[in-house]
Amino acid sequence: MDKNVYKRNEMLAQTVIKGLASRNITGYYAENKEAALRQALALIPEGSTVGKGGCMSAYEIGLVDALQKGNYNYLDRDKMDAREGFLAAIDADVFLTSVNAMTDDGILVNIDGNANRVSCIAHGPRKVIFIVGMNKVCGDLDHAMKRARNVAAPINAMRFDVNTPCKKTGKCYDCKTPDTICCQFLITRYSKHKDRMHLILVNDDLGF
Asked: What's the domain range around 196?
């Protein structure tokens, strides 16, 4: 990463953290993936039951590997049927996720197909930890929504066995096809419960 981009991200992160604090969300700055991993593990007590949404960022910083090898009850969705995994995650001590986009004053934007991820963000798990690359920070809610729909959603559609217009063109068509992955939109502007939501800003490009 260019040193000037890195410095700009570092400064912007402090603005974002202040915005998160005003929304009852605790923000942290991590200078790289290794620092992000240390911060995440500091927030997860050993012995915790840990669920996860479709969070590629947790893999990218090495968090999933650390949980699988450590003294944690990590809920591996790949080894559970969909409903079993959802019900276990919603009652977890910790839920790991990211955002599809966020504003620089701390509003979080997420889009879901099955609602398992947005459900757990909104309610259920005792603690929610977001792992967020600085590439997902946008100037306002309109731009955050556009990023979620026109960047994150098409890339995620390409990851899955679905047939959507965005998978073919890379652009949102606001479709209502049976395979659409844009069923539920969650905008988080405030955390009702103190110390429930924690967001780690990583000075790197993570996820989609």
From this structure: 3-137+184-202
